[in-house]
Predict the 3D structure of the following.
Amino acid sequence: YSFSVFTHISEEASNKCLAAIHASQSPGGLFVVTVRPPSYLQLSGMIDSVGDQLGPNPEEALKGPQYLFVPHASDPEHPQFDGTEMHYGEAVITVPYIEENWSELYEIVDIGFSTSDMYQVPVTLRRREPITGSTPTTTWPTSARPCALRRSAISNRTAPGSRSRTGRFRSASA
C-alpha cells in the first residue's frame, strides 16, 4: 500500500517506483496507491503553476491523461533535495493517465473513496505480466510532463454503499 507517496513525487520518480514495485510482486499481486483528484488543483493553488500546461480549457484537459507535478523549491536544506532536479512536491494524476501509461504493468481493479481524506483517492492495481519483448512504460524518459485525475472516476459511484468500478457492491465498512 502506498498512501500519499505518488501524490508527492515527479513522473520520473513514480515510474522508477512502479518498475521496482512491479519487479518485486508476484503475478496477480495487488498494489494500492493513492492519487490526488483534479479538485486538489484549486485547493492547493497548484492550478496557478500548471494552468499553462492545461491550455485554454483546463476542465476538458483534465479528462485526458495528465500527470501534473509542481516540485518543492530546490533548497539545499530540504531533505529530499540531492543537488539536482527536485522530484518531491505536489502531484495530481488522472485516471486516463493511469490507464494509458501504467496499463502494461497493472490492471485497474478498483477506484475507491477515502472518508479520511477526500484528496487521497485509492486506486487498486493488479500486477500484469509485461508483454514479452516490449519495453515497460515505466521506463519513460526522464523529462517530466504535465498530468491530473478525472472527476467522474472518483464520483459517488465508488463511495461505500455503491457499485465499484468493477461492478461489485461495496459495503459501507469496506
About this structure: The radius of gyration is 16 Å. Residues 135-174 have pLDDT under 50 and may be disordered. Helices lie at 11-24, 39-44, 46-54, 58-61, 95-101. Residues 23 and 127 are 9 Å apart (CA to CA).
